Amino acid sequence: MMVSVVLLALASTACSGGSEQAVLRVGGIPDQDSHRLARRYQVFADYLSQQLGVPVEYVPSVDYAAVVTAFSQDELQLAFFGGLTGVQARLQNPGAQAVAQREHDARFHSRFIVREGLAVDSLADLKEQAQGLTITFGSESSTSGHLMPRYFLTQAGIDPDEDFQSLPNFSGSHDLTWQLVQSGSFDVGVLSEDVWNRAVNNGKVDGSKVREFYTTPDYFDYNWTARPELDQVYGEGFSGKLRQALLALNTQEHGAILELFSTEGFIESDNSNYRNIESVARGLGIVR
Known about the structure:
The longest helix is centred in the N-terminal third of the chain and has 19 residues, at 34-52. Helix 4 packs across helix 12 (275-283). The strands form 2 sheets. A 6-stranded mixed beta sheet has the order 2-1-3-10-4-11, with helices on both faces. A 5-stranded mixed beta sheet has the order 7-6-8-5-9. Helix 6 links the parallel strand 6 and strand 7. The relative contact order is 0.18. The protein folds into 2 domains: 20-105 and 220-274, 3-Layer(aba) Sandwich (D-Maltodextrin-Binding Protein, domain 2), CATH 3.40.190; 109-215, D-Maltodextrin-Binding Protein, domain 2 (3-Layer(aba) Sandwich), CATH 3.40.190. It is of the alpha/beta class. The chain has helices spanning 2-13, 34-52, 64-72, 83-92, 123-129, 143-155, 174-182, 193-201, 230-234, 238-247, 251-260, 275-283; strands spanning 24-28, 56-58, 78-81, 97-102, 110-115, 135-137, 169-170, 188-192, 210-215, 223-226, 266-268.
């Protein structure tokens, strides 16, 4: 047993001249096409490694909850969360901080979509016809694909679990949500404005089969959240360098990275921005 421990210690230090170099592991919620996410985080990891001088590794996750779990188990030190998953991660890890967000994450929206041919043009119309319609959300842990749409539905007098033809479906990702409605599998869906806009702009959406009918009020959403012990693990001042590396991304030098994040840059954030998300989640019984 002692020999095995010594060999492991030697292996961990061999590539760094006798001093272990900690790897920064990054990840994010799998909210869209997995190939796009793999491209996004690989170029991002390469950039971050160059800026911070440490190895950076992208760790993919199978679903939203798995990202929160990986963060809580220190298998991820930095994660791109949605509003709800960020709240969940920080509640489970006191001291974790939301360090940056995209500019439009302070004014994010969900888009409700419907099969073409159905006379639904508002939440009031949806309320009148819900008994004969089916609906799909995204992931159960999605802010824009479930939490906030559920909140706005209840504010309009619609109980998603009681008023539709059947219990809501959960597609697992925003891309699949619009595809399910377009294919006729569900009558109504709701998803992230970023994913919907990109699908429309790229000509993937067939307007003869599916259309948008309602945009929600704005709310805070995605954010980069970092674990609390970064300075102890990677060296004094590391958390500040990380924040600066995120804020330094710009379209002139890093357009490919930013395009994959659907933004022109990141701005500073903090935990207080997501108090309303936590309040809504507690009110709906999603966070206790």
